[in-house]
Here is the input.
Amino acid sequence: MFSYGYRAQEEEQHKIVVEFVKATFEGKYDDFIEMFDRVRRKRHEVIYDEEGMISEFEANENLKIANEYIKIVE
Here is the structure.
């Protein structure tokens, strides 16, 4: 978003970033974007609602996918 001159300043910054990426890539990386949105929603639940919802295995798998996405973005 920053490279396009935009900055999310609302309360739901992570949600806005996901929506921006979805609109910008127009279906090209839908699987990655959907995965990140699921992780974002789960993170929200963990931070604001309930602890212990994410296993160590799931966290490690999400990190692997995130690293793949970083390579795509770079």
